[in-house]
Design brief:
Radius of gyration: 26 Å
Number of strands: 8
Shape: globular
Number of helices: 16
Largest sheet: 3 strands, antiparallel
Strand content: 5-15%
Order of helices and strands: HHEHHHEEHHHHEEHHHEHHEEHH
Helix content: 40-55%
């Protein structure tokens, strides 16, 4: 393949390999570049095969021959021929031509179709490598960025922008040329400029800590209408002391479609917090710093639980707002698409991790009402997004521990680890 697949915007290992192999064999790409690609591709193939087997998923990446099939007689001559070819290929060039490798008496082809996502290790490398292939197709860069922003990052521009900037800085003058860097940076500026023009300003609250969701439009389903009286949501906390800013006790906001009185919930709370505010934030504001390594690991875990438990349109920042000091408006509540029991398991995991100090008794369930909505799966309201009208729908939910609940617990454990680490690596004493 003497040209990349310009209009295939996915980061697909097969497309990448074909082009880079051609470049190496025909154009003389440096040995260290093709060796790094070969090593990274082999790691990804081994990881994908192992993950598919452990998760019980359909096996799409597997060895084409192995010692077990040789011993059984099924692949006797076939295995011997490939083993001989592998042993006789002494140079890097010869092994690139072979396009397969051996590990633990198994042979894997390098010609694998794996769509690389942010959950994969070295994603910044694969992103930079794919971008580098647009050197002679610069006009496609904006479409590449738009596609991956929408389909890989669920329109989370800040997260995608951050990774683009990291990839360019990391691989500039190696994989990333000045031309590619210029066009990517130009796309970022254009997107930010257009977003600013179309931005809808919501009334802001003044909290002791930052809140993300009040600044974002979070539309779930145009067919589901909610009544939000903004005249009752005026900011009366501007001049108050931070300690009294957790809840505006004078505000009374109702979802008139369901008759839910928010004040009825907050009056039952034995705390002034309306979220699962992390105690560690009092002493360590760097928890949500994108430069923090564990923060990035946590965002990858979020990608793993989204779509199974949380409405796919939810961004990482929107979701993490439930762990900050914020007043989450009705339209910005997180839509839970898992079961009530899985939501119960998630809340219990938060409580048992001791990352919040205000979740005793029914507080945790009432706060869950203020942070989540529910996507129904049966009855007359099947498929609709509804308010959780009674906290007992969560607290009394029944079910069995499963692989799904384990995923949620893993997310909370990683969040706890993030809370426990200060910027210097020392443990917080809270």
């Amino acid at each position: 393949m003497n040209e990349p697949c310009y209009e295939s915007y996915e980061i697909n290992t097969l497309d990448i390999w074909y082009y880079e192999k051609y470049q190496y064999l025909s154009e003389g790409t440096p040995d260290e570049d093709i060796r790094l690609l070969k090593d990274r591709l082999e790691e990804l193939i081994i990881y994908t095969n192992k993950w598919q087997k452990e998760e019980g998923n359909q096996i799409t990446v597997e060895p084409f021959s192995d010692l077990a099939r040789y011993d059984s007689g099924e692949h006797k001559g076939y295995y011997e021929r490939h083993l001989r070819d592998w042993q006789e290929a002494k140079t890097l060039r010869e092994r690139i031509i072979l396009a397969f490798f051996s590990v633990n008496d198994e042979f894997f082809s390098l010609l694998q179709t794996i769509y690389v996502s942010p959950s994969h290790s070295n994603f910044d490398y694969w992103l930079a490598l794919k971008l580098s292939q647009y050197e002679k197709g610069l006009k496609y860069i904006s479409k590449f960025c738009e596609y991956n922003l929408k389909h890989i990052y669920d329109n989370d521009f800040e997260k995608f922008k951050g990774l683009l900037e990291v990839s360019i800085r990391q691989y500039k003058n190696n994989l990333i040329s000045e031309n590619i860097s210029f066009y990517v940076e130009h796309w970022i500026k254009d997107y930010e400029s257009n977003s600013q023009k179309n931005k809808i300003d919501f009334p802001k609250k003044t909290w002791k800590y930052e809140t993300f969701v009040d600044e974002q439009v979070f539309e779930i389903n145009e067919d589901i209408e909610e009544t939000w009286d903004h005249s009752k949501n005026t900011d009366n906390t501007q001049n108050k002391e931070p300690e009294t800013q957790h809840v505006n006790q004078e505000s009374k906001v109702e979802d008139s479609s369901l008759g839910i009185n928010i004040r009825n919930i907050t009056n039952k709370l034995e705390t002034s917090y309306r979220t699962f505010f992390l105690s560690a934030l009092v002493k360590n504001r760097s928890i949500f710093d994108t430069e923090n390594g564990p923060f990035m690991e946590l965002s990858q875990l979020f990608d793993g639980i989204k779509n199974e438990f949380i409405y796919p349109g939810t961004t990482y920042k929107q979701f993490m707002a439930i762990f900050q000091e914020a007043d989450i408006k009705i339209e910005n509540r997180i839509v839970w698409i898992g079961t009530y029991y899985e939501l119960y398991s998630f809340i219990k995991a938060i409580e048992e991790a001791y990352i919040c100090q205000h979740l005793k008794d029914k507080n945790k369930w009432l706060i869950a009402q203020l942070c989540f909505k529910y996507h129904t799966k049966k009855g007359k309201s099947n498929g609709q997004i509804i308010e959780i009208t009674d906290y007992k729908k969560i607290s009394d939910a029944s079910g069995d521990k499963s692989h799904n609940t384990d995923k949620l617990e893993d997310f909370v454990l990683k969040l706890k680890a993030l809370c426990d680490e200060t910027p210097t690596g020392e443990k917080n004493k809270i």
